Amino acid sequence: MALQKGDKAPAFTLYNTEKAEVSLADFQGKNVVLLFFPFAFTSVCTTELCEMRDNIATYASLNAEILAVSVDSLFTLGKFKEEQSLPFHLLSDFNKEVSSAYESIYDTFAFGTKGVSKRSAFVIDAEGTIQYAEVLESAGDVPNFANVKETLASLA
């Protein structure tokens, strides 16, 4: 059954682009926008994450941290973060465990690739409860960021 509002967010620890462990628990007391995206350097993923970058002040004013997860290696994510000047953690779910826990993974994606993160957005409140969940079937779609911001504003 898909994760939904009111569910406890699955705990996780992943490596970021600086080769440091980042855990959901590190952000207790803050709201988290947790994004899953298929692949670095693709057009829709770049557009999505650059939109988050361009609105980082809005999310900060809503007491929210942004965490973006894909199955790319931390080295690929590091280059992507650098090229796009992304001011938030990009986390490597290379083993696909977190994408699976959040039910945000394709069995088979483009070009026959298996185990790729689905584009998804979760808002997790300061206590670790999911307040918004959107898992998209089409990788060409982006999450409804107006709904994400509205959810965050309701938590203030």
Structure summary:
This protein is an alpha+beta fold. It has helices at residues 43-54, 56-61, 74-84, 97-101, 145-155, and strands at 13-16, 21-23, 31-36, 64-70, 89-92, 105-108, 114-117, 120-124, 130-135. Helices cover 29% and strands 28% of the residues.
Structure characterization notes:
By secondary structure, this protein is an alpha+beta fold. The protein is 29% helix and 28% strand. The chain is built from five helices and nine strands; from the N terminus they run βββααβαβαββββα. It has helices at 43-54, 56-61, 74-84, 97-101, 145-155, and strands at residues 13-16, 21-23, 31-36, 64-70, 89-92, 105-108, 114-117, 120-124, 130-135. The strands form two sheets. A seven-stranded mixed beta sheet has the order 2-1-5-4-3-8-9. The longest helix is centred in the first third of the chain and has 12 residues, at 43-54. The protein is globular and about 40 Å long. The termini are far apart. The model has no long low-confidence stretch (mean pLDDT 95).
